[in-house]
Amino acid sequence: MTQHLTAQNGAPIADDQNSLTAGRRGPVGLQDWHLIEKLAHFNRERIPERVVHAKGSGAYGTFTLTQDLSRYTLAEHFNEVGKQTEVVVRFSTVGGEAGSADAERDPRGFAVRFYTKNGNHDIVGNNTPVFFLRDGIKFPDFIHTQKRNPITNLKDPQAMWDFWSLNPEALHQVTILMSDRGIPLNYRHMNGYGSHTFSLWNKQGERFWVKFHFKTQQGVRNLSNAEADTLKGIDPDHAQRDLYGAIEDGQAPKWTLYLQVMPERDADSYGINPFDLTKVWPHSDYPLIEAGVLELNRNPQNYFNEIEQAAFAPSNLVPGVGASPDKMLQARLFAYADAQRYRIGGNYNQLPVNCPHAAQPNHYQRAGAMAGGGCPYHGAQQESGVNYGPNTQQGPEQKPQYAEPPLAVEGNLDRFDRFEEENVEQAGNLYRLMSDTQRQALADTIAATLSQVTAPVQQRMLAQFAGADAEYAERVAQAIEAVRG
């Protein structure tokens, strides 16, 4: 007898694959209690390491603006050429535990915090411009497939490929992950991306959609499967060692920040959904605009205090930078900060690495675990009798001049069909950009694990590959036969 899916209170779930959104492109409605329950429970599944991005490395540095972006944004760190902003950056692998090897085939986290005069601005992205999913309601399920099987406690290729075969939106990112780009040489020799679409707005109230690209000045370099397997045995912490050593030796790694900027009015008529995290914006449509240089030049003095407790969150936004209707981003706006409250505590922003270095915290939030220290860069917050607003006791007041322009939304609040968007075209375009050697390496890497799963899953994946490019499917099928001998 088939069991029906329920929430934790036993209520049947009608749709577990689509968030409740206003119109087909969103935004997501806060009343989607099933989404909130899934994300909130997911954030509490591991103690004490991060649920994802558990193993990481980090350092401090500066961001120097090389082009004034005031025509797009009033964010102060993106105005005035030559301005320097203190930053902290954390790199990571996504799926592995805290003791896993740095050379695993896995996306890499690329999180940047700007300590701006108007608060902390975090860009919490990866080394890839896209992701496996476009809707955050699927994220807990996806990560379960990347972690250990609950019975065997082993990594589970069947779960991984079964999920991907039922979610064709993942094919673009799967193609990147299984390609030569899937194992960066180290953190210095890889790019970083905000991945999501964010918003910028200027003093005139004009909104622009934006994507952030950090291009390494060290050059992109990657590992083959054989090289990675050797490194995992010789030095599982090689990327951490490389980053720390380079900075100590005075070889400060650098990245150039570029932006892709889309006028707000373009979104409705553009050929793809600009808020779909599984898609890129072709540079021919929206060219890269150079913005500045990110440099890492100072190692932490205490790894746990400064990197392990660094609490990045996409919801750390500042005036001039905002979110977008991107469904994955909207889920992360809640999930990341909530995970940090659980992992570190409700007052995690009082820790030195998390408090705003260049801005005075001033709010009505009081009490909670570890309260009272205050931001060490500005001293303890005044503990007056007023912990509410508005008030007549000279408490901090809101600043309406920083309000984001209104976002027009339309459409029915509903859970829209997950197969509405096109899924395979950009994966096919990427495949056709590869050399013959790269295509074969991609097929061989896929076959190494896809050969271990059931025939129905293999057939669903081969159909996806064929939809992207017929040769793609043929190469993978031949590689599977070669593995079987």
User: What is the CATH architecture descriptor of the largest domain?
Assistant: Beta Barrel
- How widely separated are the two ends? 39 Å
How many strands in all?
12
Overall tally of domains: 2
Order of helices and strands: EHEEEEHHHEEEHHEEHEHEHHHH
Helix content: 25-40%
Low-confidence stretches: none
**Shape type:** globular
CATH fold field value of the largest domain = Catalase HpII,  Chain A, domain 1
Question: What kind of sheet is the major sheet?
Answer: 10 strands, antiparallel
Tell me the number of helical segments per DSSP (H or I, 4 or more residues long).
12
CATH class of the largest domain: Mainly Beta
User: Structural class per helix/strand content?
Assistant: alpha+beta
CATH homologous superfamily descriptor of the largest domain: Catalase core domain
Tell me what portion of residues adopts beta-strand conformation.
15-25%
Q: Write down the overall mean pLDDT.
A: 93
Taking all Cα atoms into account, the compactness measure Rg is: 23 Å
Architecture overview:
With 485 residues, the chain is α+β, with helices and mostly antiparallel strands. The protein has two domains: 23-357, Catalase core domain (Catalase HpII,  Chain A, domain 1), CATH 2.40.180.10; 424-485, no CATH class. 27% of the residues lie in helices and 17% in strands. The strands form two sheets. Strands 2, 3, 4, 5, 6, 7, 8, 9, 10 and 11 form a ten-stranded antiparallel β-sheet that branches. The chain has a two-stranded antiparallel ribbon with strand order 1-12. A hairpin with a 2-residue loop joins strand 4 (108-116) and strand 5. The model has no long low-confidence stretch (mean pLDDT 93).
